[in-house]
Amino acid sequence: MSLKKSWVASANNPSHPFPLNNLPYGVFSTADSDPRCGVAIGDMILDLQAAEAEGLVQLNDEPLFEMPYWNEVMEEGPAVWAALRDRLTALLAEEAPEQAKTELLLVPIAEAEMHLPVAVSEYTDFYAGRHHATNVGTMFRGAENALPPNWLHIPIGYNGRASSVVVSGTDIRRPWGQLKGPNDDAPRWAPSARFDIELEMGAIVGTPSDGPITVQEADDHIFGYVLLNDWSARDIQAWEYQPLGPFQAKATATSISPWIVTKAALDPFRCDTPVRDVELLDHLKDCGPMLYDIDLEVTMAPKGKAASTIARTNYKEMYYSAAQQLAHHTTSGCPMTPGDLLGSGTISGPTKDSRGSLLELSWGGKEPLTLETGDERTFIADGDILTLKGAAMGNGYTIGFGDCTGTVLPALQDPFKR
Amino acid sequence: MSLKKSWVASANNPSHPFPLNNLPYGVFSTADSDPRCGVAIGDMILDLQAAEAEGLVQLNDEPLFEMPYWNEVMEEGPAVWAALRDRLTALLAEEAPEQAKTELLLVPIAEAEMHLPVAVSEYTDFYAGRHHATNVGTMFRGAENALPPNWLHIPIGYNGRASSVVVSGTDIRRPWGQLKGPNDDAPRWAPSARFDIELEMGAIVGTPSDGPITVQEADDHIFGYVLLNDWSARDIQAWEYQPLGPFQAKATATSISPWIVTKAALDPFRCDTPVRDVELLDHLKDCGPMLYDIDLEVTMAPKGKAASTIARTNYKEMYYSAAQQLAHHTTSGCPMTPGDLLGSGTISGPTKDSRGSLLELSWGGKEPLTLETGDERTFIADGDILTLKGAAMGNGYTIGFGDCTGTVLPALQDPFKR
Asked: What are the catalytic residues (chains A, B) (predicted)?
């Protein structure tokens, strides 16, 4: 696979995140238009509501682009997904006969405001990165008991809050919560002092299911991927999470990147999960390469200052693929719906500079980071801008995700005085 | 408060669950009609879609009853909720001037099929019954460490799966799962052998919120209550739940009773939470009676046999009210939406025959129950019908919930052979 050329010139730059090979799906608005579906090509967005209205995209008897989210397309299933991608590729390729008509429906990305690309039906967060689980387990239980006994047998996950999912660029308000340190006599009500990120990929389920599905079926049901930052209040979590798991610690916000990168665009970057220490039970066994080679990066910028890279890692570091997570999610008969969002779990690599959370990077707050600006950090300070970046590097082209960013605002003065 | 008389004669029986004092809201269909909103009165349902079309109920410029769920009404807020109840009371009271017109829009409950009354946006399950938490904690950690350290300070909860919520009467398929007993060398893939119920109340959030709310505001946001059975696979749970909480063990199904009993109908039965061992932090403190005196019962019927009562308890046994749970749910800024369903947690009383789960009733499977039919049970056997019943007992009238029932079907032969 090499760069496919488009008549949108900016898309032909080998380092541009949105070449014709990518065609990521988002929802945008402009000063003149309400939110609607669009596809990115170079520095431009093709307005798909308009393209459908003009007859340039016509896949079904029913319109697909009347709603400001991608769920309607997702529900149509893989044959329509493939037909849509083929049609968009044909419209946007060099020497496309419809170039003149299509050109009229382009909007500069610079003039667009991005919205959530999908109506998130439910959100599940996994804990499926071995380096992350080992780091966290070592901090809390010691190196010998780092991985829980079930960890190598099941992709451990918990249900999160769909209502907390926001699009990149949304400001994040530092939460209050009930906190109790190990040396405190009693809990107190205070703003979180250990507010953190988690670098994750989000898999978006397109096809519904109503009973157990295989790993292969699960892979077929996934529509695409986004970057995902699972904002986490470590001090709230420490006090609340036993015995039933994280709850308010993870409910403030979950940011996702605005563009859904489709499985088709990522296909050349498929790779295998790591070698298994313990054989998985049949229903969770790998049946093909279902992880992806995607370079990931986290940057942190103190208010008004330049951004420093604080971590670099890769999605292929995960122990379980999103397909394995989705298959496990259905084992009990749990119905899955279009718009289900599955967070991969924090993606850390084996080295210190590849850790996907400040909890790990500062080793529980004991080893502050020094940013390039000279600022020291353990956890997030008010005003900090945290950004996730992701790209799969092809032969002469890039499949980029668009940034997943958020600025952390100070906690409310007192949330119960209004 | 005493019995309010209706021209629907069956509603005037002091033991009928649906007198004029109740007016519970559901969604029903008949052989001749698609699912639509209705209100129960005695043995009948008033078709509210038809009543609105006929001009008998007209609260807004916009129609409220075009959709087959109550979310549209819920979003309107407390003033519309009160106006609707007033109008329905006027239409159905003895000597109502519109009796003749209204009578034409009644459908016998016996001819109706019930559907989910609400589009469940998200589902949260709490663990807020002290007797239940003490029983389970004693079984797993011993009597001295029964309650986790945070339990008396926070209503502990976790996010469940909205997609798993089904209406009473829906058959429940025994799930498969990954199981590993304490003496097993490795996990195996098998049907759950410890499939259980949890007797709970469900609170339905009507008013959205987008930041922390007080306990009083939370009470104001609640639209009504249902009975809720949180079907639980104890063996799946035991292996999966550390460290992030229950996941597939709780995702097979959650049954709710078909009628939403409004907060207004329950108002005469408000009561206080129990005396506190430990003072709650200000934002969670009680500010009025927000539990309810509701008698609860669980019956179990082996296939083709009579039902035996296996537990009797009362909603007032809870340590935290739904209002406290909802307030806690918003502390981190978590947005709540119309259709959020909050399970109370299992409601057990202090005595052995008041325990709301088979786990407790059979003390972890060690003390089988003998049903009135002579059958012995630890957990659920295939074909068993489990039913929750609930009623608040007024002075000469009853506020009933309608049963919450489900038949457990045998596990699929092999869910991956299709």
From this structure: 132 (proton acceptor)
Residues of A in contact with B193 (CB under 8 A): none
Among B161, B176, B331, the residue with its CB nearest the CB of A177 is B331
Residues B232 and B386: their CA atoms lie apart, in Å, by 13
Residue A239: closest C-alpha in chain B: B150
Residues B332, A249: C-beta atoms closer than 8 Å: yes
How do residues A78-135 score in pLDDT, each as one tens digit?
999 999 999 999 999 999 999 999 999 999 999 999 999 999 999 999 999 999 999 9
Mutation to test the B interface, candidates A159, A171, A254, most B Cβ within 10 Å:
A159
**Contact (CB<8Å) B243/A148:** yes
In order of A238, A364, A369, the CA distances from A379 in angstroms are 15, 9, 9
- Asked if the domains at B9-115 and B123-409 fall in one CATH topology, the answer is no
| Cβ-defined contact of A245 to B246 (cutoff 8 Å) | yes
Q: Looking at the partner chain, which of B150, B158, B332 has a beta carbon nearest the beta carbon of A245?
A: B158
- Tens-of-pLDDT digits for all 418 residues of chain A? 899 999 999 999 999 999 999 999 999 999 999 999 999 999 999 999 999 999 999 988 889 999 999 999 999 999 999 999 999 999 999 999 999 999 999 999 999 999 999 999 999 999 999 999 999 999 988 899 899 999 999 999 999 999 999 999 999 999 999 999 889 999 999 999 999 999 999 999 999 999 999 999 999 999 999 999 999 999 999 999 999 999 999 999 999 999 999 999 999 999 999 999 999 999 999 999 999 999 999 999 999 999 999 999 999 999 999 999 999 999 999 999 999 999 999 999 999 999 999 999 999 999 999 999 999 999 999 999 999 999 999 999 999 999 999 999 999 998 876 5
DSSP per position, A1-24: -BPPPBSSGGGGSTT-S--TTT--
The answer to whether residue B328 is catalytic is no
Q: Return the CATH fold of A9-114.
A: SH3 type barrels. (2.30.30)
- Its ipTM equals 0.97
* DSSP letters spanning B116-131: -SS----EEEE--BHH
- Smallest CA-to-CA distance from B195 within B395, B402, B386 is with B386
A25 annotated to bind ligand: no
Q: Which residues of A are catalytic?
A: 132
Bridge-partner residues for A190, per DSSP? A177
Q: Residue ranges per domain, chain B? A: 9-115, 123-409
Q: Could you tell me the sign of the dihedral formed by the alpha carbons of B211, B217, B221, B222, in that order?
A: positive
Say how far apart CA B363 and CA A286 lie, in whole Å.
Answer: 39
CB B213 within 8 A of CB B153: no
CATH architecture of the domain with range B9-115: Roll (2.30)
CATH of domain B123-409: 3.90.850.10
Our CA angle for A266, A267, A272, nearest 5°, is 100
pLDDT class of B418 with cuts at 50, 70, 90? low
Burial class (CB in 10 A: 0-12, 13-18, 19+), A93: middle
What is the DSSP secondary structure assignment for residue B151, as one 8-state letter?
Answer: T
